[in-house]
Specification:
Order of helices and strands: HEHHHEEHEEHHEHEEEHEHEH
Keywords: Cell membrane, Membrane, Transmembrane, Transmembrane helix
Strand content: 15-25%
Helix content: 40-55%
Pfam families: BatA, VWA
Structural class: alpha/beta
InterPro entries: Aerotolerance_reg_N, UPF0353/GerABKA_families, VWF_A, vWFA_dom_sf
Radius of gyration: 36 Å
CATH architecture of the largest domain: 3-Layer(aba) Sandwich
Number of strands: 11
Distance between the termini: 45 Å
Shape: rod-shaped
Oligomer: single chain
Protein name: VWA domain-containing protein
Organism: Paraflavisolibacter caeni
CATH superfamily of the largest domain: von Willebrand factor, type A domain
Strand order of the largest sheet: 5-4-3-6-7-10
């Protein structure tokens, strides 16, 4: 019922002030009944103190008629439920968000830390692109496809919110993160394929590394994938030491901006440097403007009339009033 009142609108609002007349009519009715009472002398009032159920119901017919009048006034005001239906359609872009989840992403040069800010801005970016297919790849000492390229943005945003450092083996393998992201876009037939790769470190290759960044770059170029790279660190070349997974210290040895610029330039993208939350938000907004989708949003407003319920209530009240007046409370002939 509360939800109904929250969504109701009136086509003829000017009628509603007439409801204020009902208390006035009730007061006038009460005053008139008092003035019509006659007085006469009796030896005792004992007989008048005995009341039957009719004594309690004597004013009910008038009350029902007053309620019926109120329902009729509301019905004339034409209560409606407004329902706005929006349909979004268009030609989208296939995008993969490739996010570094290494231990250094817990560094607190961004508040509360780099990873939390990266998650917030990535989720906001997803919500701004309703027709695009977007996926999520995470990487640190290895890479993993956390969410396939899809239009299910609600589930994707939930996955982004649940990101945490320690989900993968620690380290920073930009090449593997890029290669996995390209592989997710390989089956795509979209007119444009884009990767947004965010990291706060530089390549830290172990002995078992599968793909180096230059090889991953060549794969991206072959597949026609445009890569936007984002370097996330408050200070140029800063080394940040934080407590990482299980309390172990994690060292971030600074950004490899030369590599990130090369990947972006050779794939037709762009490199951006984020030094705080606001700058990262601006970067995502710039990428959003650079990669525009053909979007068409149509709105259709539909009104569902509700006056019929008040008409039905008024009729029911009048029928009940007549039954009481002419049957149950009928005066003696």
């Amino acid at each position: 019922m509360i939800n109904w009142f929250q969504h109701i609108e009136f086509a003829n609002v000017w009628v509603l002030p007439f409801l204020l007349m009902l208390p006035v009519i009730a007061w006038m009715h009460y005053r008139m009944l008092r003035s019509l009472k006659s007085a006469f002398t009796v030896t005792t009032t004992t007989a008048f103190k005995q009341k039957t159920y009719k004594s309690y119901l004597v004013h009910l017919p008038f009350g029902l008629r007053l309620l019926a009048a109120g329902c009729i006034i509301v019905a004339i005001a034409r209560p409606q439920i407004k329902n706005v239906q929006r349909q979004t359609k268009g030609e989208g872009i296939d995008i993969v968000l490739s996010i570094d989840v290494s231990g250094s992403m817990l560094s607190k040069d961004f508040y509360p830390n780099r990873l939390e800010v990266a998650k917030e801005m990535a989720a906001e970016f997803v919500r701004q692109r309703p027709v695009d297919q977007i996926g999520l790849v995470i990487f640190s000492g290895e890479s993993y496809t956390l969410f396939p390229v899809s239009t299910d943005h609600t589930s994707l945003v939930e996955q982004i919110r649940n990101l945490r450092s320690g989900m993968l083996e620690d380290g920073t393998l930009i090449g593997e993160g890029l290669a996995t992201s390209v592989d997710r876009l390989r089956p795509s037939r979209a007119r444009s394929k884009v990767i947004v790769l965010l990291t706060d470190g530089k390549e830290q290759p172990p002995e078992n590394r599968l793909i180096d960044p230059i090889t991953a770059l060549e794969i991206a170029k072959t597949e026609g994938v445009k890569v936007y790279t984002i370097g996330m660190a408050a200070e140029e070349g800063a080394t940040v030491v934080e407590k990482g997974v299980a309390g172990r210290p994690t060292v971030a040895g600074g950004l490899d901006e030369a590599l990130l610029r090369r990947i972006a330039m050779q794939t037709g993208g762009a490199y951006f440097r984020a030094i705080d939350k606001q700058s990262l938000q601006d970067i995502y907004q710039r990428i959003d403007k650079l990669e525009k989708s053909d979007v068409e949003v149509t709105s259709k407003t539909r009104f569902e009339e509700q006056f019929i319920y008040f008409i039905a209530a008024a009729l029911a009240l009048l029928v009940l009033e007549m039954l009481l007046r002419f049957i149950l409370l009928r005066p003696f002939p």
